[in-house]
Amino acid sequence: MVAKRTAVGGYPLSTPPQVTKMIALTASGAHCVSKCANKTRFKVLAEKFPSFLPKEVENIKDPFARKLATRIERLPVHVNFSESSIMSSLVKPLIQSKTSPVVLLHGFDSSCLEWRYTFPLLEEAGLETWAIDILGWGFSDLERLPPCNVASKREHFYQLWKTYIKRPMILVGPSLGAAVAADFAVNHPEAVENLVFIDASVYAEGTGNLTKLPRIVAYAGVYLLKSIPLRLYANVLAVNSISFSTSLDWTNVGRLHCLYPWWEDATVNFMISGGYDVSTQIDKMKQNTLIIWGEDDQIISSKLAVRMHCELPNAILRQIPDCGHLPHVEKPSSVAKLILDFIQENLNMEPKFVSQH
Questions:
Q1: Phi, psi at residue 136, to the nearest 5°?
Q2: In whole angstroms, how large is the CA radius of gyration of the chain?
Q3: φ, ψ for residue 356 (rounded to 5)?
Q4: Set 297, 309, 333, 341: catalytic member
Q5: How many CB atoms lie within 10 A of CB 42?
Q6: pTM of the model
Q7: What's the domain of life for this entry (predicted)?
Q8: Out of 89, 100, 175, 201, which one is annotated catalytic?
């Protein structure tokens, strides 16, 4: 059954004392998100963006997106399907903790900037937090275009984990990122301690008929995919209520990675490869799993949240009221608190800092 929260603000009246500090941090961070995002008089200080980002990053107004963009870096990842290492984009944590690292994936054709509001809340709460760009999307250097099918995405992520993260992780996947996480957890269970799915797209049968499209038609469709009107419409569908100016800025954030010359090739490569079809793998995941769902999701029915809750062996379901398809963008404090509660319940301890730099 769907587990409903029954107290003020959608959270239980009794909160474990160990997470009081973390909850306070998420609450204050959420206030900052709301305050800063809605006041045009917020002054954005001059940031120094990585030179490899498209120059259009300067046009983004969202202070949280700008801040996270300054922290994106590229690290070499050696994979079996390429002679040279792939310079792979990600946001590394500022802290290291004894608890399992939290690793954030993103949705279809997106980037680590999707986590601009929730990432700092998790980090402020003392969690070792990574945001990873999935191969073929985000800000990695794909000038020497590798294959961007499911197997390549999995291999790339595994080698990145093996080289840099190195410990079993709490893997978080929103939308199609949940399918990426599910596929990875089944194939590399040693790397995944627990899972968090957010409005998960795990029951789609891959890219369907798109695999049969002539390449010229596929490229035409991908060109449309990065268009501003289509992205604006996607924001309307994904979020409960949003002003035009905010939607336009979010569109600039969401399509920034599409401005690389290799983006179209990588996306077509993924589309014609068949995409993710993980519906038969759901019951194979043995990790404890938190399912988060926006109650007003207009893109993926909440009925599928209930189905997944029933099929996963060790899952809990938490719904967020007045929220659409992207809770980590629309309701960052709620998502951060649910993840913190989930970690607390599984580890029964606060994050302990090892070092800070």
A1: 100, -20
A2: 19
A3: -140, 135
A4: 297
A5: 12
A6: 0.83
A7: Eukaryota
A8: 175
pLDDT in tens, 17-31: 333 333 333 333 333
What tokens does 118 get? 């929730």
297 noted as active-site residue:
yes
3-class SS at 81?
A: coil
pLDDT digits (tens, 9 = 90+) for 236-270: 888 888 889 999 999 999 999 999 999 999 999 99
**296 given a catalytic annotation:** no
Q: Which of 259, 301, 2, 257 is nearest to 111 (CA)?
A: 257
Distance CA 314, CA 128 (A): 24
- In whole angstroms, give the CA distance from residue 337 to residue 196: 13
Q: Is 141 a catalytic residue?
A: no
Q: With beta carbons less than 8 A apart as the criterion, state whether 302 and 293 touch.
A: yes
Cβ atoms of residues 276 and 180 within 8 Å: yes
* From 325, 328, 333, 334, active-site residue: 325
Whose CA is closest to 135, among 207, 168, 169, 184? 184
Strands of the chain, DSSP E: 72-77, 86-91, 95-97, 102-104, 129-132, 169-174, 192-198, 288-294, 315-320, 353-356
Give CA–CA dist 42/48, Å, rounded.
18
Assigned token pair, 173: 């996947």
| Beta-bridge mates of residue 316 | 290
